[in-house]
Amino acid sequence: MTEAFQAEPGRLDAVVSVHLGVPRAEVQRAIAAGSVLVDGSPREKSHRLSGGERIEVDLAPSAELPAEGPPLDVAWQDEHLLVVRKPAGLPTHPTENRRGGTVVNRLLGMGIPLAPRGGPLRPGIVHRLDAGTSGLLVVASDDESFEGLAATFTRHEAGRAYLALVRGSVAHDRFEVDAPLGRAGARIRVDATGGREATTAFEVRERFDRATLLEAEPRTGRTHQIRVHLSSIGHPILGDRRYGGGGDDAHELGLERPFLHAWRIAFDHPITGERIDLEDPLPPDLERALERARSGSV
User: Which of 155, 176, 204 is the last residue of a domain?
Assistant: First the structure.
């Protein structure tokens, strides 16, 4: 199956891996076999992309993804796209090594068409939420909607807001973190020299003795962006063990995952032009943690 897309800046194998949602080793095998073209020509796996090049990838077809249950809660839907409420603990899409137990599998189980343009492992998936993050997720049902939505997210024209409960007292009521992000193994870190541009705006929603509830609006869409930006300024998200948010205070709040929830999304429908503006309240586990914070647990 051949996929074609416009490249983002970065190393060829890494860009293709992220875009298609497949392991980098699989992409490297395809590059070595001459199955990845940059503006019509094969390149080395380490080739640096400037951004805007046409990438063509011919990967061996994957086995059909399993359709699974239970169904997801749908916040909005028409024949072109839908917005689902993703529960915490559910990855957004499969990988070659994990072919089930994702949003995509559940949507297939619901009989919902998913845009093939997303690729064999991430049909319909325009943007992702981390497995531990709950909230609103947009999915395309046809390729025309996929292209329109992808352009909207690439241009940062979709309004997205998250709620995050962080450790400590944040100094300012409104602030931005502008810090490039890069990958170090399985972790993302601030990388001022080789990282990709990343900016997040924050606003205080509520203050507690040893914690702060923030609203976060990412201006860019990097992996783990909100989590790493908050950790980098000394206010990790409570419950986020990977980036320093574990410990006694998270345990006292009963947090088994990061307190991060995609509570609002707003965008123009790519086909009809209708303005879609949706909100999703905190799920019960985070609402309970917030009530414990209000009662003085942190």
Answer: 155
Q: Are 165 and 148 contained in the same domain?
A: no
Determine the Cα–Cα distance for residues 204 and 42; give it in Å rounded to an integer. 49
One digit per residue, the tens of pLDDT, for the chain of length 298 reads 578 898 999 999 999 988 887 778 888 888 988 889 999 899 999 999 999 999 999 876 556 899 999 999 999 999 999 999 999 999 999 987 788 999 999 999 999 999 988 888 889 999 999 999 999 999 999 999 999 999 999 999 999 999 999 999 999 999 999 999 998 877 899 999 989 999 999 999 999 999 999 999 999 999 999 999 999 999 999 999 999 999 999 999 999 999 999 999 999 999 999 999 999 999 999 999 999 999 987 7
What does the alpha-carbon distance between residue 47 and residue 222 come to, in Å, rounded to a whole number? 21
Q: Does residue 227 contact residue 129 with C-beta atoms inside 8 Å?
A: no
Is 119 in the same domain as 187?
no
Extended strands (E) in the chain: 2-6, 10-11, 36-38, 41-42, 48-49, 54-58, 73-77, 81-86, 134-140, 159-167, 174-178, 181-184, 187-190, 199-207, 211-218, 260-268, 275-279
Q: How many CA atoms lie within 13 A of 202 on its CB side?
A: 27
Rg of the chain taking only CA atoms, in angstroms: 20
Range of the domain at 17: 2-58
Does 90 share its domain with 118? Answer: yes
Residues 150 and 165 in one domain: no
End-of-domain residue from the set 155, 176, 206: 155
The answer to whether 130 is a known catalytic residue is yes
From the candidates 13, 130, 142, 240, give the one annotated as an active-site residue: 130
Measured between its terminal Cα atoms, the distance across the chain in Å is 52
CA–CA separation, 135 and 88 (whole Å)? 8
